Amino acid sequence: MTDNFDYDLLVIGSGPGGYVAAIRAAQLGLKTGCIESRETLGGTCLNVGCIPSKAMLHASELYHEAHSGALEKFGVKLTGAKLDLKQMLSEKLKAVEELTGGIAFLFKKNKVDWIKGRGAFENANTVKVGEKSYTAKNILIATGSSVTPLPGVEIDNDKHVVVDSTGALELPKVPGHMVVIGGGVIGLELGSVWLRLGAKVTVVEYLDQILPGMDGDIRKDAARIFKKQGFDIRTGTKVTGCTVKGKKATLTMEPAKGGDSETLEADVVLVAIGRKPNIDGLALEKSGVETNDRGQIEVGHDFQTDVAGVYAIGDVTPGPMLAHKAEDEGIAAAEFIAGQQGIVNHDLIPGVVYTYPEIASIGKTEEEVKDSGTEYKVGKFPFAGNSRAKTNRDTDGYVKVIADAETDRVLGAHIISSLAGTMIAQVTQAMEFGATSEDIAYTCHAHPTHSEAIKEAAMAVQGKPIHI
Ligand code: FAD
Ligand code: NAI
Questions:
Q1: What is the ipTM of this complex?
Q2: Helices of type H across 140-269
Q3: What fold characterizes domain 7-147+276-337?
Q4: pTM attached to this predicted model
């Protein structure tokens, strides 16, 4: 296809959006290059996001189980379980290295050129990296996102006192007291890691509830479960400043609605108040592409910007900042660029919080359905009535299914369960196929599995579950 360009497609950024798009484009016969400023491929997700956080969540859960005596009721007596944090961090690094190295292998296998360095537009068909310029018929911006700074709270990951998620994934010792600013996904996942490893963890959240955007019942019940685990959650509170003296930080906070301020001492402060699109240094203006008032790049259904031949996907565009959304958009964008039809159903992007228990969500929340004016029915089934969860002593949580009262079509599902992240795929697929709650209720589910709770919640929509 090249038409005198160096490439058919140049991708800027090798996160789950960019690397997947590059591989798909190469598979479809396009001459493809991928520019990455980081030393390794894989973006935020593989280097400092999804992968290292899940490695630490898994390892910290194992430590907690072994150390807390939780296994004794199963007849497993352990004495002297000790934390070797250095080893835990090194195993996490190994997983990151294996996976980022895997992308380099896939690039070679698919003949994608890895162009090392920071890319900046020269025009809508040219990107400069260092001293060299590369031309391409199509350019895909997949530069991702980085942490939103909080004025008055300066992050310095190297000092291990005020950190962002990257710093919180490599603390050299367990803090006595960690204060997390932001009761969202990062705050609760990484707060869980350090809570399990022995820290006292306080979460300071500006809004009245944690986990914004999730179903109201789930937000309330998740907070109750986290508090039971030992999280100190302070909602409706804003941080107004932070001073650091040596290895201690002092935060100043006040009620979000105004009132007396108070201070809170911390050994580590984790700033996790959201992420912002990466557009700095990209010289976007030279391409003609503009951003919206949130700094995001708007695209059409084919992921093309207002400038022909310039595309964008993933965290740099509107929508949930999730790796699987970026990946699916990467595949679809590559397919559009190759002249095919790409498909992403943005109404059905699952969201999972990998705490214990996990929290997973698909489709609309009850609040969204109510606001839309649609008449609806709700079916709930608690894991206390699920035989496998009971056997595993793992009964925190429930499945909530929301269906259209008239058509019975499933509009949303929300799950709190140790296996919620895996279970949500079933409802997502059912919803993709336009399933009714009756379709799910009459689908045979293996016994004994946690997934039976989805069937029973669907039966509950019709008022007839068996086990409650
Ligand atoms: P990114 O992964 O951010 O990749 C963009 C890449 O572009 C980066 O490597 C960057 O170095 C590079 N880049 C930027 N500008 C330039 C330039 N000018 N030139 C060259 N290269 C450039 N999502 C999930 O779905 N599940 C999870 O479990 C999950 N856990 C997370 C945990 C943490 C701690 C964090 C921070 C995020 C997590 N996320 C998770 C979110 C997920 O990481 C992002 O949604 C995803 O990485 C976005 O992919 P992307 O391709 O858009 O961008
Ligand atoms: P978030 O948007 O999930 O949560 C940020 C929280 O901070 C919100 O509850 C918000 O109300 C609160 N907040 C904002 N300003 C505040 C202030 N000044 N003081 C106190 N609280 C304040 O953002 P988070 O946790 O930083 O994660 C960023 C993104 O990374 C998310 O959008 C998520 O999509 C992605 N991510 C996904 C994961 C997953 O899929 N499991 C894991 C980690 C991150």
A1: 0.98
A2: 165-168, 185-196, 216-229
A3: FAD/NAD(P)-binding domain (3.50.50)
A4: 0.97
